[in-house]
Amino acid sequence: MNRPMPAFRRALAASAALLLVSVGAADTLRRGAVAEPNSLDPQIVSGASSTIMRDLFTGLTSYDSAGRLIPGAAESWEISEDGLTYRFKLRENLKWSDGSPIAAKDFVYTLRRLLTPGNRTRFGSFFYSIRNARRIMSGELDPTELGVRAEDGRTFVIELQRPDPTLLEKLSNYAAAAMPQAVIEEH
Question: Residue 34 falls within a domain, yes or no?
Fold first, then answer.
């Protein structure tokens, strides 16, 4: 009589043992990647790099495990009655990997860079609702004319040219996460 079950059980036990061997320390998270990233610049990556970017960069907003929009780098936000002004209060003690603080000016730099002509980004059109964004992308205006500003170190303001009910979702995108200007300009 053929007895495939014991062989199947042995194979299953061997597979489980291999999985246990590959598990690291309890405080280590391992993520698979289908390919090496083509860049670590979140504004120009594509394909397999997207998964890595979501792990490395946090936007002003994010999503919880149930898919609900939650604060990310921003601890809170206010939207004006007309839907044209978004004011974000950044979390205290946000820091770059070198320990220097992340400030509202970093989000200003990020969105201006994102919409600078020639940036090779595929995300610029996501933010056309921001005042002057389309004209900046087309080269008509300088990026300093973009409707974004830092009111202070922790307050970042976006002014829209038309209401955009999806802006908070778009700001969860890694391409809109703060970027360290000095590092970008150095490389």
Answer: no
Q: Which mean pLDDT values do the consecutive 10-residue runs of the chain (187 residues) have?
A: 54 50 63 75 76 83 95 98 99 93 97 92 93 97 98 98 98 92 85
Q: How many whole angstroms separate alpha carbon 18 and alpha carbon 20?
A: 5
Given the DSSP bridges, would you call strands 69-71 and 74-79 parallel, antiparallel or unpaired? unpaired
Strands 148-152 and 61-63: unpaired
- Beta strands per DSSP E along the chain: 61-63, 69-71, 74-79, 85-90, 148-152, 155-159
Q: Structural domain of residue 87, as residue ranges?
A: 49-186
CA distance 179 to 39: 14
